[in-house]
Design a protein that fits this description.
By secondary structure, the chain is mainly alpha-helical. The chain folds into two domains: 105 residues, no CATH class; 155 residues, ABC transporter transmembrane region fold, CATH 1.20.1560. It is built from ten helices and two strands. Keywords: ATP-binding, Membrane, Nucleotide-binding, Repeat, Transmembrane, Transmembrane helix, Transport. This is ABC transmembrane type-1 domain-containing protein.
Length: 347
């Protein structure tokens, strides 16, 4: 749309009687029939070619007004001359049907609808994030810290039960209390180390992913920006990066914490609390429950994943529209200001 306005209203109309030097990579503009001289820069060398000689253009008279452009002006900017209302541009404005048809056809071919991913998230996506997160070394450290946290937590609970059921609880209070305090402090240190490791690894992963995405965007050919609306790029750098920065690390920490908590509680109930062999083997009944839980979670996971993808796809046009709104007032004011100055000069 911007290229269409520049070509039809600026190059083809306002600058019709002037020499226009246009630097572009657009092949459609380069092959335009209105190009008189072409200079190509390829592999460090320039190539000059004359396409066609310039045709003399008779300047339009002031009275020959073809297109009228109204503009609302709140305050005069030049002098106090009387201005007609509405304001008219004395410059002849041509319709430029060839450029309208050309750009409408180009936009319909290049800018299509954003494709939405279908199915599960690929394993390569998880592998790339784990690599940016720190690799399997970081995952191993998190496993160690999480295991230490659960062991110390279960140990403190078991020790508290031993303390309350012992006969010398009153006499050996300091000894029992010292061990219980040590277990609690150790659990606090393990939780602190796990939290710091998750935060640092999450920041490192977000930096690595952002750097790779920025490098890919900078090294992308210019045709990518012609085919891709700005809202899609902004959506990747805004919505997706916020998920990587905030939600992914702490979601992983939460899921890992719940998993280790359930596993430690189950193992404690099977091997520590009870001594009956039959009761211990009854703990295997949790396996069908885990299977049912996973199947039910998958029923909710698929629509949640599809809704998230739909949200991301529909959010890109909104961002593009907001970007156009942001740049629209300044362009409109500049255009109206130029018309006011041009009209006052001719009146």
């Amino acid at each position: 749309v911007v290229q269409k306005q520049i070509m039809t209203k600026c190059v083809e109309t306002l600058l019709k009687t002037r020499t226009v030097i246009l630097v572009t990579h657009n092949g459609d503009i380069i092959s335009s029939p209105n190009v008189n001289r072409l200079v190509r820069l390829e592999d460090g060398s320039t190539e000059h070619s004359h396409v066609k000689p310039s045709e003399p253009v008779v300047a339009a008279k002031v009275a020959d007004v073809v297109v009228k452009i109204p503009c609302v002006v709140a305050k005069p900017v030049m002098d106090n001359r009387s201005m007609p209302s509405p304001l008219w541009s004395p410059r002849t404005m041509e319709a430029g049907d060839k450029w309208n048809e050309h750009f409408d056809h180009a936009i319909s071919e290049t800018v299509g609808e954003e494709e939405r991913a279908v199915g599960r998230v690929g394993l390569d996506v998880y592998a790339s994030y784990i690599a940016a997160f720190g690799g399997w070394r970081t995952i191993g450290l998190l496993f160690v810290f999480q295991t230490a946290t659960q062991v110390l937590q279960v140990g403190s609970d078991v020790w508290l039960g031993v303390w309350t059921s012992s006969d010398d609880a009153v006499v050996q209070t300091k000894w029992y209390l010292g061990i219980y305090t040590s277990l609690c402090l150790g659990m606090m240190v393990a939780v602190l180390c796990r939290t710091i490791l998750v935060a640092v690894s999450g920041v490192r992963a977000s930096r690595v992913m952002f750097g790779k995405m920025m490098s890919a965007l900078i090294s992308t050919p210019m045709s990518f920006f012609d085919d891709t609306p700005l809202g899609r790029v902004v959506n990747r750098f805004a919505e997706d990066m916020s998920l990587i920065d905030i939600w992914l690390p702490f979601s992983y920490a939460g899921v890992a914490g719940w998993f280790f908590s359930v596993a430690s509680s189950l193992l404690t109930a099977m091997f520590v609390v009870t001594t009956d062999t039959v009761v211990r083997w009854c703990g295997l009944l949790f396996l069908p429950m885990i299977y049912v839980y996973i199947r039910v979670a998958q029923l909710y996971l698929r629509p949640s994943r599809e809704l998230t993808r739909l949200w991301n796809v529909t959010n890109s046009p909104v961002l593009s529209f907001l970007d156009e709104i942001e740049h629209g007032p300044s362009i409109h004011l500049c255009w109206c200001g130029g018309i006011v100055h041009f009209t006052q000069t001719w009146t």
